[in-house]
Automatic annotation (TrEMBL):
Source species: mine drainage metagenome
Keywords: Membrane, Transmembrane, Transmembrane helix
Protein name (record): Glycosyltransferase RgtA/B/C/D-like domain-containing protein
Residue ranges of the TM segments: 12-29, 69-87, 94-113, 125-141, 148-167, 173-200, 212-231, 270-290, 302-322, 328-344
Length: 508
């Protein structure tokens, strides 16, 4: 592909400043928000930062065959644990680590998009804007899953690979291999991008790929060595733990597709921004096909890449029933669709209007965790009195077993969790995973959980209160993000403020 300048020095400095500013804003706003499996991923990293070993006491209820985290390659846990060793254990520190992953993915992905777009006409502000668009996705995503860092490392690996030298190609393949160790869920993306880049490297389809055998083999050896080091050479234990977890996490293909489709349908209400991006991608693709012209030599290539990545995203969703893949592949579609729309939408004024409208809609929709609970409302924060009550409960009995969730790990403990803390989401032996009732808590346990978690097992706690945003009259769940402390030795209904069944019957 012809040499080209990705961005001028001044533009790159400006884009970096804005990207870092947006990342800081996201960290300050406590974004991305909590997700059910945060403690699953963060717990071993905290253990590594504190003790130098990947212990997982938060998952004691799952009865894994090993005490240490050998469920799958722990590249992400080592990365996060090393970060926490340097910058300290706190919610802000973890959020900053996640945002750094988005920055890496945003810059690397935009660089690749600029190369794949070739000589498509593009205004100078297009590629910096694409980085901003990628970061806007963080406002709607959830949790501390490793997929974002895997995505960023994979894209960065391909950027290095495009340098062309033997060492650069080996380093690039090494980065791609490490991304698969961080999260295997990026495998479809890696496979699609590898094929596309091999075919279109330097703009000459069909270029010999035999020269890649050496760099690829060297990278494979290095990744394998790093993997064995990460599990301390304990292959047998790793294999047992990996299979133990895989039987729970992977669904049969047809069932997985069914779950994936239902997640798309149900996700429309909770994450409208992602479906806005799908619509934009569809419109951009139709317009690209209708506007095919010899004057746009890179349009066909870019369209093929976008379509292939769309298929990779669908395949990734079909591989497992977790949700983050939806956000990852819609990030690709949003960036690609927005780029196409701008490039093919007529004159400069139309391009600017299209871009401003797209970003405005995407940002507005992404900022809201769900349609009725903006994060910046005071109701999205717990009552300080209830936080003090929870901390006092732990101080009185520090050796007691406390079941906590991703919300209280942030808002109450700032990830300085009690010694005997357990992850509420994974506190029961498989296949139950989480408790089913607050009225059967063992006397040795105390729950410290948020209202959103508690409503899963006791819908009676759900109450809605009205609120306004300008002329809009809406309602939200009362105490959705507030803290509930439920001691297993005391009557749960009294602690929840609910009437006893007999009292309710008499009231009727």
């Amino acid at each position: 592909m012809e040499p080209h300048q990705f961005m001028s020095r001044s533009t790159l400095v400006g884009a970096t400043f804005l990207a870092v500013l947006m990342a800081i804003l996201a960290v300050w706003s406590d974004l991305p928000g909590p997700a059910a499996d945060d403690l699953f991923y963060v717990g071993p990293a905290i253990s590594y930062a504190q003790h130098g070993r990947l212990y997982m006491p938060l998952l004691a209820g799952q009865q894994f065959p090993t005490r240490e985290f050998l469920i799958y390659p722990a590249f992400y846990q080592y990365m996060l644990g090393g970060w926490l060793k340097v910058f300290g254990i706190s919610t802000r520190s973890i959020l900053a680590f996640v945002q750094l992953g988005y920055l890496v993915a945003g810059f690397a992905g935009t660089f690749l998009a600029s190369r794949l777009a070739g000589r498509l006409p593009s205004p100078g502000w297009l590629w910096p804007s694409m980085i901003m668009l990628g970061l806007l996705v963080t406002l709607g995503t959830m949790g501390f899953r490793p997929d974002v860092w895997a995505f960023g490392v994979m894209l960065a690996g391909f950027c290095v690979w495009m340098n062309g030298a033997f060492v650069a190609r080996a380093a690039g393949w090494f980065g791609v291999g490490c991304s698969l160790m961080i999260s295997p869920n990026v495998l479809p993306y890696a496979a699609v991008l590898a094929v596309l880049l091999l075919l279109w490297r330097d703009g000459r389809p069909g270029r010999r790929t035999a020269a890649e055998v050496g760099p690829l083999a060297l990278a494979a050896v290095l990744v394998a060595a790093l993997f064995l080091a990460s599990i301390q050479g304990r292959w047998t234990e790793f294999h047992q733990a990996f299979l133990f977890h895989a039987r729970r996490a992977v669904l049969p293909p047809l069932e997985s597709l069914d779950v994936g489709l239902r997640r798309y349908v149900n996700g429309f209400r909770a994450h409208p921004a992602f479906f806005v991006s799908l619509a934009v991608c569809a419109l951009a693709t139709v317009r690209a096909v209708a506007a095919r012209s010899p004057g746009r030599p890179g349009a066909s290539r870019f369209l093929v890449c976008l379509t292939a990545l769309f298929a990779a995203g669908l395949l990734s969703v079909a591989m497992t029933w977790i949700r983050e893949e939806l956000r990852l592949f819609t990030l690709v579609l949003a960036a690609g669709g927005g780029c196409f729309w701008i490039l093919l939408e007529g004159g400069p004024a139309a391009r600017r209007m299209a871009w401003v409208g797209f970003v405005a809609v995407f940002a507005a929709a992404s900022w809201i965790k769900d349609p009725l609970e903006p994060r910046w409302l005071p109701a999205a924060r717990p009552d300080p009195a209830h936080v003090r009550e929870a901390l006092a409960c732990v101080a009185r009995e520090p050796g007691r077993i406390f079941l906590v969730d991703a919300y209280t790990a942030r808002s109450v403990f700032d990830y300085h969790l009690p010694v005997n803390a357990r992850d509420w989401e994974f506190s029961m032996p498989f296949p139950k995973l989480n408790p089913t009732s607050p009225y059967a808590i063992p006397p040795s346990q105390t729950w410290i959980v948020a209202g959103l978690t508690l409503k899963m097992v006791e819908p009676a706690v759900v109450r809605f209160v009205p609120f306004s945003i300008g002329p809009l009259r809406l309602r939200r769940m009362a105490r959705a993000f507030d803290v509930y402390v439920i001691d297993g030795r005391l009557p749960a209904r009294r602690q929840l403020g609910l009437p006893e069944p007999a009292v309710r019957a008499a009231a009727r």
